[in-house]
Give the backbone structure.
Amino acid sequence: MSLASWNDGPSRDAILGYLARITEEGGPEHVPAAERIAVFDNDGTLWCEKPAYIQALFILSRLGEQAAGDPDLAARPVVQALLRGDLAAAAAAGGEQEMTAVLLDTHAGLTTDEFDAAALHWLEAFRHPRFGVPFSGLAYAPMLELMETLRAHGFRVFIVTGGGVDFVRAIGARLYGIEPDDMVGSAIRARFERRDGRVVLVRTAAMLGSPNEGEPKVESIHAHIGRRPIVAVGNSAGDREMLEYAHTGDRASLCLVLDHDDEEREYAYGGEAVTNPDAEPILTTAGHFGWTVVSMRRDWSRVFP
Amino acid sequence: MSLASWNDGPSRDAILGYLARITEEGGPEHVPAAERIAVFDNDGTLWCEKPAYIQALFILSRLGEQAAGDPDLAARPVVQALLRGDLAAAAAAGGEQEMTAVLLDTHAGLTTDEFDAAALHWLEAFRHPRFGVPFSGLAYAPMLELMETLRAHGFRVFIVTGGGVDFVRAIGARLYGIEPDDMVGSAIRARFERRDGRVVLVRTAAMLGSPNEGEPKVESIHAHIGRRPIVAVGNSAGDREMLEYAHTGDRASLCLVLDHDDEEREYAYGGEAVTNPDAEPILTTAGHFGWTVVSMRRDWSRVFP
């Protein structure tokens, strides 16, 4: 697949020029196939993250079911605020810690198989509130083409997400053609158990390590992938360190930052520091390092498949 | 590559029969390609682990260098016992905890790149005390053939080792044709740092999670691979849970246990519970579950490449 949904222009040129340089046999910037590692952020980089993270909607849907069957849970101010979608009020009601505990608890006790089934079941019914499409309609067509083009040039392509890795894994093969072992993300600890003679993994309410944003993205890339990537693609301040990691390796690198500047076809919020309001906006960082900023409005001839 | 180093007999039949059943299009036990996941233990399963774990020799070599330059370190009884190779005395001198701390500290402060270089440098010079061969001569030829045969049948092949994953990664591609991202093991936490404007990862003296033996092997398979394997190969009690995980899935599985019963060509210690003397010997467990026991002596026409 070529980059059919990419308009002619500097972003497309930067991608194709880079690939030509690092795959040129005997060329000065040639990179052996084993080192062709590409990492993509997920939310807002590979699929739409507005008006809310899709996984957050899934978790809140489960919380609503739990509250419907549990008056004590439903009566808690933090839960009521969460179910109204008012995160600020939820944090004020219970503090970040209680809010996080409530959210982590939504799928505790399920086996990993049960969680996969629950995620898939919810995702099958989900329709985007503005676009009316199922989840498979929310992946960015130009990014699917970019991943395919990288694979055609000998790359292994990984997702490195701040989202819950088990959630993305449930649909990653269908959405992106990426198998579960090529996804890295925030993770819930799943505990070994024998049930009726069968080994299962049971989700706890505890995280395994830190939320996978910022520096932890680099540490998790080492822990899971074991090599420094040469291509990194992101869209928020939480991707900065991962992009810097690719940028400061010995090999020629390609760092892309997606600018959401397309109110008409998607959303316009590219200047925001999505996860941490105090962080330097990623578009500013991209300017410092000379990373390629991909404008959704100008560089993409279509957004969704 | 066929299973050229496997003698005709029940083990070879079990492997080939299994592969025929699960790859038969439309057959009752057919497994889709995406679910063809194979996991191999490393030490004693893929390469020789006697007279000592090769990684242990590497760590002790470094400890010897450190002690040579640091009289205080050299004077500690736990260090003296370790450098004599007397683990029991070392544990008695300082307790398991102090011994572990000394060993974990040997490569703390190195960047991951520096560690890789140190491991490779040591491994290039290493010769096996009995066989006189370099590390590449210690992989089991029949296991290399088995991995290749699995790949030819659409499998993705992973190493799930109790050893330090960064050590195995340094040589895994050359030894086994397995890239770093397909290796799971015990891990040291590597911390994000910027040095001279460059992002590096610096090894700490702390483990990331538990030692990867027993139940943690199953938990780390979920964390890294995200699917239940259908083929599992091991040789010690530390592999039991991983083998059980494959055995108790919905798909037809193949569980192999290597019996080291060949004093002449390698070593004879298959009945031992290597890492935990209180654990049930894996050959006993294999009998309970009906797993295929591979006899090095009878089933392999050659051991080393």
Strands of chain A lie at 37-40, 156-164, 183-186, 188-195, 198-207, 231-234, 254-259, 292-295. Chain A touches chain B through 41 residues (CB under 8 Å).
